[in-house]
Design a protein that fits this description.
It contains 14 helices and 43 strands. The protein is α+β, with helices and mostly antiparallel strands. The strands form 11 sheets. Strands 1, 2, 6, 8, 9, 12, 13 and 14 form an 8-stranded mixed sheet that branches. The chain has a 6-stranded antiparallel sheet with strand order 23-22-21-19-26-27, with helices on both faces. Strands 30, 31, 32, 34 and 35 form a 5-stranded antiparallel sheet that branches. Helix 6 packs antiparallel against helix 8. The longest helix is centred in the N-terminal third of the chain and has 16 residues.
Length: 852
Amino acid sequence: MYCRYRSLINPYSFGYPSYSYGYNFGGSGGGGDNDSSSGGYSSPFWNEYYYGRARRTPYYWVRDSLFCRRGRGGRHASEDKPKEERPETPPKPVRPEPPKVELAKKINVLDIDLHIPENTLKHKTDDYRRTKERKVDGNELPAELVIRRGDSFKVTLKLDRPYSNEKNDVKINFALGENPLPTRGTEVEFDVDETGNGTFKADDWGANKLKQNGNDISLQIFVPANCIIGEWTMSVKSYSFGKDKDGNDTTLVFRYELDTDIAILFNPWCKDDGTYMEKRKPADPENSDETYDLDEYVLNPSGCVYQGNAFTRGAKPWNFGQFEEGILDVCFSLVRRGFGPKNIRAMAQPTKVARMIAKMVNAFDDNGVLEGNWSGKYEGGNKPWAWVGSVKILQEHKKTGLPVKFGQCWVFSCVTTTVCRALGIPCRSVTNFASAHDTDESLCIEKYFSDEGKHLPNLSSDSVWNFHVWNEVWLVRPDLEPRRKYDGWQAIDATPQETSDGVYTCGPAPLSAIKDGLCDTNFDSGFVFAEVNADVVHWKRLPNGNTKRLRILKQSVGKKISTKIPDGKPYMIPGLTSEDSDIPYSEIRRFDVTHLYKYKEGSDEERRAVMMAHRTAKSPMEGTYEEVKEEEEEELKFKLKHSNEVMIGSDLDIELVVTNTRDTPQNVKHPSINVAPISYTGVVGIVFYRKRFDSQVVKPGQSYSWKDTLKVDMYLPNLIELANLNIEANTLITNLSENKYERGFTTHEFRFRRPDLDVKGPSECKLGKPVEFKVSFNNPLPRPLVECKISMESDAFDDIEDERVDDVPANGLFEKKFKLVPNRIKMHSVEFSFDCKTLEDISGTTSITVLP
């Protein structure tokens, strides 16, 4: 049985305190008259009465409207607009009580016990702050139920008299939104099976009577696995025969509405849910460490994100904080705003929700969460690397209704991880090193050179980033054929790079399609394929304007694709260190997922995938893979050598080695090394250092090297954010026997190591008892660190406000102590980030077990 239940025009529902009764005004044809002398029948269209406790939390559409108004007000605050004259707020309607005689004839609900501790433990939602009574901004907030679809939960109805199966009849009603409709899937009403033996269907609501104790009856309510996720209103309806305003017989409906919402999430533990992930080990013995662990991909509130380059990787600790106060609210609101109220049904489909999250996390199209900024100028906001978690970002967005400034790819990704995990979608942040950005949909990265061998960057906007971070979500893909082939990990990307269907979003793209080069598979599989497996093609620009292919570099893109090991634990684990090993701690905690994106480099399977991608490319470059008779003899081998473990503030030794693999002597004329800053997105700055060496004849089969040292005072003033350098070596090579010449050229991207924050604290502490953490590091630079700020986030401690701290002397020690009070039990992490004008992106973390 389906039934419309809420008035369209009554703005005063539950606007009164205490245990009260409300009436449903309005209906088809307009509003009701408010004549209190009508004995309570003030609407000729509806004979449905509300009663229950006053609403303890606002309806979500009220919160959403406030959010939107804040956003609009913030954007237009600088504009001088004449004030619009608005009509006066109408007076509250006279609120007749339901006919007491009729009400007394039928059983009525006094209260509903949601058994929140028991239900949230069963549904693995007990970590959400929302499920506890708490005080926020001076307001006492009630505990609210958070459950997952595809499972049942227990409630107890506290009635005004014992329930009789023979005499009484109640129905359960769930409604979503301000104007719910059964035809939109936003309202449902169903009977209670009083035998207690009813069986539940995966795609249907249902309820069983469990037991009766005096005036209380306990019910088991089942939420279907295809339910729309969101904040639902639950009501219990009872029925009585009575009279309408004209004295005619009619059925009176009495509705007790719960005074808080029930939040319903995706359920990756349910095999009927589109996010279902079975916990298992993979069949591939080479990747036996891989697990499919929801303790990590849904329940872990902390982790890390990898940065750097393919040779020098590091991990930045991150607090995802999906269970923190207000985070679930803003995640629901974000997706609702993206779909709009008329398309709310799409929130039942995890594929559409994941694509919408990738759209709404960036602010390009729709006033989303984060404003991207790669300019190097961050006035009016936070530098992207100063963030250490998602909570402050999402809370600021919720507070202001405006995009938060500023983010880059890892920030977009980590916020996306938070939103997905909060809503129940298994998700992880993934870093691709040497990540290609294909701008012309050729699925290759084109680079052009002059006849003399000079790079012509203006002819192509393609690039290769040092690294790029996106997300993987685990989804079933019923929208793709053949069924089950494309289920599993899907790539989504919230960083606004290119548009997809006219908006800045990317994915979900099935990793299985990407691996096989099936680039016409929805959504955006071609773009992601290019990021991980595009060939880099060098073209010579001829004097007549035509091009000639020089070479194809088949193994330059998509290296060491990385995420945190999926063990459900914080990034930093007490007792697990790299002190006795040459392996950095970040590598101990790194899980390589390159095999999910492509076959082994150079294998027949990998090249078949590249050819398949080329055939399905939207704009392939003509002649890229044509058979060309190679006229070139084997090239000389150029190699740049340096340590990848150089700490910023130290000198950098560079060596250029040339090996003659030909059978004639080669004259390497005046080789040079040029050094320039480079952004992590591959944009090379102005060369600030040049070193030209003497010429040298290299005999067949021999090598020769030139060495140089880049001093601190030479590179330090020229570094840009993230401390990356582009080192280029070039020379003119002549064949002494044939008097032929050619240009030799090689580049290498280098990243200075930066110190980590050393965070010291006890391994255990007691809930509610203050604990002290000491944060320190040594300044590696021969100059002071100025304009310093420290930030902290944790899922077990209240976050501190970003704090200005004293300057740090040249080569001096920074040290600061923090006293924090834990508010959660279990093992948790605490993340700190230090930022200043001189040295950027310093972070650290520790873990602590909080005992009851």
